[in-house]
Amino acid sequence: MKLRWIGPLLLCWLAASASAMIPGPELIIQCPESDKLVKQFTLASGNTLSGRRWSDGYALYSMLPSIPQITRCDDQGKFFWVAEATVVGKFEGWDETRMPQAWRAVSPCTQRGTRCRWDKTGMPQAWREASDVRFLSEQEYHAALAEGMGRNRKEEVYLRIQAWWAANAAVRNPRTEGAITSPFFPGSRARDNLERLVELLATDNPDERLMKAEALRQLGRFEEAQQTLQATFPEQMEEAVRWIRELVDKRDVLVKEMPAFRK
User: Fold this and answer.
1) Which segments of 31-68 are extended strands (E)?
2) What pLDDT score was predicted for residue 134?
3) Distance (Å, rounded) from C-alpha 208 to C-alpha 52?
4) SS3 of 130, please?
5) For the chain, what percent of residues have pLDDT higher than 70?
6) What DSSP designation does 234 have?
7) Is residue 52 a contact partner of residue 146, using CB atoms and an 8 Å limit?
8) What's the pTM value of the predicted model, to 2 decimals?
9) CA distance 125 to 130
10) Which long-range contacts (CB under 8 A, 24 or more apart) does 60-66 make?
11) What pLDDT was estimated at residue 122?
12) CA–CA gap between residue 119 and residue 1 (Å, rounded)
């Protein structure tokens, strides 16, 4: 299972691919211990052009949408890793009407002037009514961890990073004006999660080391963050390291949108 978060900050300095985003087949997945089905979007190719990135590693790319690795079929359903679920069918193609406008503009079928549609002849009604695989909420990530879904270090790190990102959503997109406070206050489940993530992230991996420093910064553990940033980083990461070090020096604990660094 390839973790989507590995090296997210490093994407800031990598040259983006010029290829258009091309959706792959959409999979019909059987929910475990249930008669419900969900649809899983897949991606044949994409790129990171015109993306937005934040200091915690979260990123939004219009041509490279994230795909959940763990989900559940309803609010009370069983948590399951998508890669391990049973695929009962798939659509070879995509429905242009379900694409965001930006995707339609670069899709090969639109450029050819043709209409891309799934052939729904003979498709089971349950397939048509299947909901999309969704990301979990912050509370659900905590619940998944409590139920033992983090069966190894890799899975636990993924779940805890997703919970971290979910906790920062209110800071990334504040709904009201006024002062914004950190979600990682003492005694909160969000803080406990981030403290555990700091323990798990390795210092011998540059990507994880930078993420560890950022997590320490958001916890207000500035001296430890500064010490973590003193280690040697690859040249292509130096601008980001300096930028996060400046946030540490300012004693800023909030997640920040990253500037566009030199490629």
Assistant:
1) 37-40, 43-45, 52-53, 59-60
2) 93
3) 20
4) coil
5) 75
6) -
7) no
8) 0.80
9) 9
10) 62/21, 62/100, 62/102, 62/103, 63/20, 63/21, 63/102, 63/103, 63/106, 64/21, 65/21, 65/41, 66/4, 66/135
11) 62
12) 31
For residues 113, 119, 125 and 128, what is the CA-based torsion angle, rounded to 10 degrees? -30
Distance CA 68, CA 50 (A): 21
Contact (Cβ atoms closer than 8 angstroms) between residue 209 and residue 228 = yes
> How far apart (Å, rounded) are the C-alpha atoms in residues 182 and 188?
11
Nearest-angstrom CA–CA distance, 28 and 99: 18
Q: Looking at mean pLDDT, say which of 32-36, 135-139, 169-173, 179-183 comes out highest.
A: 135-139
Instruction: Give the Å distances, CA to CA, from 222 to 19, 172, 227, 231.
Output: 40, 21, 9, 15
What are the distances in angstroms from CA 39 to CA 4, 109, 134? 19, 22, 9
Torsions phi, psi for 34 (to 5 deg)? -160, 160
Count CB atoms within 10 A of the CB of residue 225: 22
Q: Are the beta carbons of 11 and 59 closer than 8 angstroms? A: yes
